[in-house]
Amino acid sequence: MTFILLGSFVSHAVLARGGSGGSIEYKEYFDSLAAILSEYPTLLSTATFIFVPGPNDAWVSAFSSGSSVPLPRKPVPEMFTSRIKRAFANANTEMEKEQGKKGDGEAIWTSNPARISLFGHSENEDEDIEMSPPPSSPLLVHSPPEIDPDIHTARRLTKTLLDQGHLSPSL
């Protein structure tokens, strides 16, 4: 089972508020989430959680005060996520002790936008794109023109290579 959690993981730009405690407060929120998730070790040892950052997340909000920021947004830094990763590791180890097989649960901290492929179906996760309304005009479907088999093979090879790349190669 996969859970995709789209940020912002806080309701206001944490580091832009001024005063002290912004990053400490932000880390405490993730530590609280880790404590809650730790109460469900079976879920942690069998599920994948994917965290996609938003504009109010700590390192981005330090520069933008919560306003729109350029893409790509980097993953949540490890200093904030260590307890959640530890909760997954502990649940996987506990499952191995109890059932003799190691759990495959994990937490993935990705950039925004992120390309996620599940069972061969690719999704681009970006909270700005996800919240946009669907197109108002209907799509017209045409049958594709005949393509030379050699060109078709070359295109498939190129697509395979490009699909392995990251949406933001500079990250």
From TrEMBL:
<feature type="domain" description="DNA polymerase alpha/delta/epsilon subunit B">
    <location>
        <begin position="2"/>
        <end position="170"/>
    </location>
</feature>
<protein>
    <recommendedName>
        <fullName>DNA polymerase epsilon subunit B</fullName>
    </recommendedName>
</protein>
<keyword id="KW-0732">Signal</keyword>
<keyword id="KW-0235">DNA replication</keyword>
<dbReference type="GO" id="GO:0006261">
    <property type="term" value="P:DNA-templated DNA replication"/>
</dbReference>
<keyword id="KW-0238">DNA-binding</keyword>
<dbReference type="InterPro" id="IPR016266">
    <property type="entry name" value="POLE2"/>
</dbReference>
<dbReference type="InterPro" id="IPR007185">
    <property type="entry name" value="DNA_pol_a/d/e_bsu"/>
</dbReference>
<feature type="region of interest" description="Disordered">
    <location>
        <begin position="124"/>
        <end position="150"/>
    </location>
</feature>
<dbReference type="GO" id="GO:0003677">
    <property type="term" value="F:DNA binding"/>
</dbReference>
<dbReference type="GO" id="GO:0008622">
    <property type="term" value="C:epsilon DNA polymerase complex"/>
</dbReference>
<feature type="signal peptide">
    <location>
        <begin position="1"/>
        <end position="16"/>
    </location>
</feature>
<keyword id="KW-0539">Nucleus</keyword>
<comment type="similarity">
    <text>Belongs to the DNA polymerase epsilon subunit B family.</text>
</comment>
<dbReference type="GO" id="GO:0042276">
    <property type="term" value="P:error-prone translesion synthesis"/>
</dbReference>
<dbReference type="Pfam" id="PF04042">
    <property type="entry name" value="DNA_pol_E_B"/>
</dbReference>
